[in-house]
Design goal:
The complex is a heterotrimer of chains A (287), B (529) and C (314).
Chain A (H helix, E strand, L loop, with lengths): L19 H19 L1 H4 L31 H36 L1 H16 L2 H11 L4 H9 L3 H16 L2 H8 L4 H37 L11 H8 L8 H28 L9
Chain B lengths: L5 H13 L10 E5 L15 H10 L1 E2 L1 E3 L5 E3 L2 E5 L5 E6 L13 H14 L1 H7 L2 E6 L4 E6 L6 H6 L7 E2 L2 H4 L16 E3 L9 E6 L23 E5 L4 H9 L5 E2 L7 H5 L4 E4 L6 E7 L9 H10 L2 H8 L6 E2 L24 H14 L7 E6 L3 H4 L1 H12 L3 E6 L1 H7 L13 E7 L28 H12 L3 H17 L3 E7 L3 E4 L2 E2 L13 E2 L2
Helix pairs in contact in B: 3-4, 9-11, 15-16
Chain C lengths: L1 H27 L5 H6 L5 H11 L5 H13 L13 H36 L4 H15 L2 H15 L15 H35 L2 H8 L4 H12 L1 H26 L4 H11 L2 H29 L7
The chains are: A mainly alpha (287), B alpha+beta (529), C mainly alpha (314).
Chain lengths: 287, 529, 314
């Protein structure tokens, strides 16, 4: 069985024209968000779980900079702490998807015997809508951080496998790999020395997109009521809890939405920039 | 809110006798957003409020309960023998099922038996019943083997599983299986073709229904339907529902989030009010079979630590719509009692000090409390968080486990150790109609039986008092027993009574004559063009 | 061509079987009890046990799995555990709104994003280009429910141009249908518009550098004819690919959009089914969407041949 006959897609330079300052700005925003996550205890004015029933749904004030939520918790402090979970979810999902997807992709690309089996399983996984799988996994097990990471990660794996596999297939055709093969270089050495490096650049780029979409998916799961519990603030569950009060206190939704969107915007822009620098031939996130 | 008066009586007479032809004007359709989606239809099998409300649309009951908590004739009149052991029910004339066949005593006997199989209080009653038999087409006789004081109350009770009547062939559905055909004898017909489970249910006026001549009062009296069609919709988003009400897409929202009332109060096309005057009690249940709550002192410490006002304020907000009281049977019912209120008295700080002291002297060893929290049920999602904070302050170690409501419900049924999927504490709420006496109140069951509702407290004293209650017919005697039971339940920390909240409905000005009741009732309601 | 089609269809069989197995196992190996969902929270254990017995969930898993597969092969998709309605009937009731929503979103995507992409490519490097590109990144970065709320806030509540919620089928008239489906369609299409306009722009840039475009220009054809007739047609393949792979993304958008706009579609049905542990319903819906995904991608592969004569199938 051969590879699907998907035609070669002309390469694109999605962000080739992005001015330098957008990249600098994205880096600054990301640095700020990472700093926010790391220094959350110092930055926050309150414990993110500290309740005050009398001070529910307050508007912004000197004490509560961005107001309070329906438990009377400080919105600003929760958003600051929320950065931790969102970044963690993004990192966990990206790392997990690559750790699992990379070896599978290498195997599928190099050993024809594995290819058919692995790719059929991946096709199957890709066909199951990620959000439905994630809803099922989270709802049916336990709404904890690890479950959410796993649930979001699983649907991302096939993307990684396909990307790595396509890179390996391309690399196999390169003359230096053929030469090494003819010289009798053992497979493990061949893979680590010649094939793996070819996948690094596209993987880094892919990782940024997985990172961004994981944060969005976490928010969507929280929105649907199957996310991480409210004792751990995430931008997603802050918005989900705030949405009941949207008409009265729209900032309960807008503040976390702005931070979340800025964060994802920056990651996406950075991904585009990285793609240009590292991997001008990359075919894209969308195949 | 309007209370039906003579006008309802007039309408009843008109509908009963003269006008069978239906309205001359255009069809009136009532569009309602219900508090929960309707997914199952069998009102015997489900304890969910929405299914009960559906039950009262399609099905009828032998007796109804009026606003004075008195059982009244509905499908049947009754007579009680002098020794109080024989109840004779005579079906009134003109009762037919929606398929046109007449309602018979045989149907009703089968329905009663099926109901009793599915209702905890009904099962209890059957322990006292010698037989239920039809004696003619129209008459059925219930004979007690030993005295039981609550036959009429149970047959009229509106919650959690009312004894709805259905044709014999449906009532003989095997146990545990759902009745799927919606053939009742109630004032509305269910339109099966337009039913979309979880989304939409449609009812039309039952033109053959003959209402009683008395004015409607709760589920008793004449059920006179003044609209042609009632359409229930589920809207998962409260904001969306409110938008829909304001724009006129719907006429009535059964339950509005209290926090959002200010949005509606500004709108002069919309009114808000309480349909069910009794409200619901929020309950924090301890698992008596697992440490640390297998120790009564530790349960009491937890009760001192928790604070009704804080719990209610966070869940409901506006104090106008919640009530703080000690009564386990509801704040405003005949059996209401303040026994045990010492556990709720004093300031929150004073009680916290007591809690800390008691917890220490009880030798609490730091065993974590696993508190279950539902993520997808707004009304119960705040209490576990608020309670966990207070318990931690008192010295407890608390793990909040967030999960969806379905998981929580099935997890609550098991008593294995926490590490194997058990639990220590959960919050639920109960319509006051379902807990208003020691017979129906599931959380006051002191049998410790595996088949009791989750929590499994053991108290022979309470069981003895509850047995006395079953045969007590005098109200003062019932009150005394209920208060004693409540005191013991507090002393032994059966559960934490977290206060009562009201459901608030909102409707457009075109809607009038909404009937107060233990659930939302759709007879009586009028809609002007 | 026919051989290729057959081979692809055959390849889909093990894939679908795998999906069925994965879904079945995930659902059955996790806690939760549909009997509880039927009985409600105030029911006692005895009653729940009776209901569970009647549902036949106590049979061994392997038996349940193969019974399910066997029945499906005979066209019997089973009954909802909760509402006792045939699963296909329930899906049939809900699929219309979802299809309508997806179609409108797709049309909006094409109508909005193709011109945007073409214009951006034409004005490559200029202000318009940067604006389009920046907006498209924004489209990826804002959660769909936030977009939905903003749209409702502005266009329905404030300006009152559209109804705030709900769905009317096409059978009730074109205007009521469009009037209600437009905002949700727009919300759902936001991410696609971002995706497809970027892709169009990139593909157009590629094509605009080709010789035949220069030839066309030399022949003096009008700029719009060149852009839309010649260039866009040749840029169609990557665009189609995006549309196909975007299907999975659309499902996720559909679930959220249906909730925000109160559209009684499949997305809400499946979320409710998961929360109530309605196994047959969940399984069938996931299989259905997975099957749709497989078919759409097959169609897209086939359409390459139609749009690009250079492609041949083995």
């Amino acid at each position: 069985m051969t590879a699907p006959v998907t035609p070669e897609i002309p390469h694109r330079r999605l962000a080739g024209n992005l001015p330098h300052w957008t990249i600098v700005l994205s880096l600054l925003v990301l640095a700020a968000i990472v700093a926010m996550a790391v220094a959350a205890p110092q930055l926050a004015n309150f414990e993110p779980t500290e309740l005050n029933a009398v001070m529910r749904l307050q508007a912004g004030s000197e004490t509560y900079w961005l107001g309070t939520d329906s438990f009377g918790r400080d919105l600003y402090s929760r958003i600051v702490y929320g950065a931790r979970v969102s970044l963690l979810v993004g990192a966990g999902v990206a790392a997990g998807a690559i750790v699992i997807g990379l070896p599978l992709g290498l195997l599928a690309g190099w050993f024809r015997g594995f290819d058919a089996v692995i790719m059929r399983v991946m096709d199957g996984m890709m066909a199951i809508p990620g959000i439905l799988l994630a809803i099922a996994i989270v709802a049916l097990t336990k709404a904890g951080l690890v479950t959410v990471i796993i649930a979001i990660m699983l649907p991302e794996i096939p993307q990684v496998v396909r990307l790595v596999r396509s890179r390996v297939l391309a690399a196999r055709a390169e003359s230096y790999v053929e030469a090494a093969q003819l010289l009798g270089t053992p497979a493990p050495r061949l893979i680590t020395r010649h094939l793996l490096p070819a996948t690094v650049a596209p993987l880094i780029v892919q990782a940024t997109y997985i990172y961004a979409s994981a944060i969005l998916t976490e928010a969507a799961l929280s929105f649907l009521g199957v996310g991480i519990g409210t004792e751990i603030p995430t931008w997603g569950n802050i918005m989900a809890e705030g949405r009941l009060y949207f008409a009265m206190r729209p900032w309960l939704v807008f503040w976390p939405a702005i931070v979340l969107s800025l964060c994802i915007l920056s990651i996406n822009l950075l991904g585009d920039a990285l793609r240009d620098r590292l991997d001008p031939k990359m075919k894209g996130r969308d195949e | 809110m309007t209370i039906p008066g003579l006008r309802a009586l007039g309408w009843a007479a008109i509908a009963a006798g003269l006008f069978q032809a239906g309205p001359a004007s255009a069809e009136t359709e009532l569009n309602v957003v219900m508090q929960a989606p309707l997914r199952t239809l069998d009102p015997h099998l489900s304890t969910a409020q929405i299914v009960r409300t559906h039950g009262f649309m399609v099905f009828d009951t032998l007796l109804g309960m009026d606003a004075e908590y008195k059982p009244q004739p509905q499908m049947a009149d009754y007579e009680i023998s002098d020794d109080g052991l024989t109840y004779t029910f005579t079906l009134r004339d003109g009762l037919t099922w929606h398929d046109g066949s007449p309602v018979t005593a045989e149907d009703c006997v089968a329905s009663l038996k099926r109901w009793a199989d599915n209702d905890a209080a009904g099962r209890k009653m059957m322990e006292y019943v010698a037989s239920i038999e039809p004696s003619s087409d129209k008459v059925l006789v219930l004979t007690l083997a030993k005295p039981f004081g609550h036959v009429l109350e149970l047959l009229a009770k509106p919650s959690p599983v009312p004894p709805f009547m259905m044709p014999k062939r449906l009532a003989e559905t095997p146990p545990g299986e759902q009745v799927e055909e919606m053939t009742g004898s109630g004032p509305f017909r269910f339109v099966a073709e337009e039913y979309r489970p979880g989304d939409r249910a449609v009812y039309v006026r039952n033109e053959d229904y003959q209402p009683r001549s008395e004015p409607a009062s709760w589920t008793a009296g004449g059920k006179v339907v003044n609209v042609d069609k009632v359409v229930w919709q589920a809207m998962p988003d409260m904001q969306t529902s409110i938008n829909a009400l304001q724009s006129g897409d719907v006429d009535l929202i059964e339950q509005v989030a209290i926090d959002l009332l200010p949005l509606l109060q500004m709108n002069d096309e919309v009114q808000i009010g309480t349909i069910n005057p009794l409200g619901s009690q929020v309950t924090g249940r301890f698992n008596h079979r697992l440490p640390p709550f297998d120790n009564a002192d530790i349960r009491r410490a937890a009760m001192y630590a928790l604070d009704q006002e804080q719990l209610m304020q966070t869940a409901v907000g506006d104090p106008e719509y919640y009530t703080l009281c000690a009564s386990d049977y509801g704040c405003e019912v005949p059996l209401a009692s303040d026994a045990g209120s010492e556990y709720l008295a004093g300031s929150a700080d004073e009680r916290m000090a007591k809690a800390q002291e008691l917890l220490q002297s009880a030798g609490y060893d730091g065993t974590p409390v696993l508190m279950m929290q539902p993520t997808d049920l707004t009304i119960l999602s705040t209490q576990p968080i608020v309670a966990a904070e207070r318990l931690r302050e008192a010295g407890f170690t608390v793990d909040v486990a967030s999960m969806d409501w379905a998981t929580l419900q099935s997890r609550k049924n098991g008593w294995q150790p926490v590490a194997e999927g058990g639990w220590n504490m959960l919050f639920t709420y109960w319509g006051v109609t379902g807990i208003w006496d020691p017979l129906v109140h599931a959380l006051l069951d002191g049998s410790g039986d595996d088949n009791a509702w989750s929590g499994w407290p053991v108290s022979p004293e309470i069981e003895a008092l509850r047995a006395d209650y079953l045969v007590a017919t005098d109200l003062d005697e019932q009150k005394r027993l209920a208060a004693e039971i409540q005191q013991i339940a507090y002393d032994q920390g059966f559960y934490y009574n977290a206060g009562e909240f009201q459901s608030v409905a909102a409707w457009r000005n075109e809607i009038s004559e909404i009937q107060p009741g233990p659930i939302t009732l759709f007879w009586g309601v009028q809609k002007s063009e | 061509m026919l051989y290729y089609l057959l081979r692809r269809l055959l390849m889909a069989v093990p894939v679908m079987f795998l999906i069925a197995l994965i879904v079945f196992l995930i659902l059955r190996l996790t806690p939760g009890d549909p009997a509880q969902a039927i009985a409600g929270d105030q029911a006692g254990p005895e009653q729940i046990a009776a209901i569970r017995d009647s549902l036949g969930l106590d049979a061994p898993l392997t038996v349940q799995f193969f019974t399910w597969i066997g029945n499906m092969l005979q066209g019997d998709f089973g009954y909802s555990l909760i509402s006792r309605r045939p699963v296909l009937e329930m899906i049939g009731q809900r699929i219309g709104p979802t299809l309508a929503l997806a179609t409108v979103a797709m049309i909006l995507t094409v109508v909005i994003s193709l011109p945007l992409g073409v214009v951006a490519a034409r004005r490559h490097g200029q202000f318009v280009d940067r604006l389009v590109m920046s907006l498209s990144v924004l489209g990826f970065s804002v959660p769909i429910f936030v977009i939905g709320y903003v749209l409702i806030g502005i266009f329905a509540v404030h300006l009152e141009w559209f109804p705030v919620q709900g769905y009317k089928p096409l059978s009730e008239g074109l205007w009521p249908f469009l009037h209600r489906i437009f905002l949700p369609g727009l919300a759902l299409s936001s991410i696609y518009i971002a995706l497809v306009s970027r892709m169009t722009r990139a593909a157009m840039l590629e094509v605009l550098g080709e010789d035949y475009i220069r030839t066309a220009r030399a022949k003096g054809l009008s700029e719009w004819v060149i852009l839309f007739r010649h260039a866009l047609r040749n840029a169609a393949i990557p665009i189609l690919t995006v549309v196909g792979t975007g299907f999975a993304m659309m499902i996720s958008g559909v679930v959220v959009t249906e909730t925000v706009f109160n559209i009684p579609g499949l997305g809400r049905l499946v979320v409710d089914a998961v929360l109530a542990r309605d196994y047959p319903l969940i399984q069938t819906i996931i299989l259905l969407t997975a099957g749709t995904y497989v078919v759409i991608n097959l169609l897209i592969d086939l359409s390459y041949a139609l749009t690009d004569p250079r492609i041949r199938y083995q």
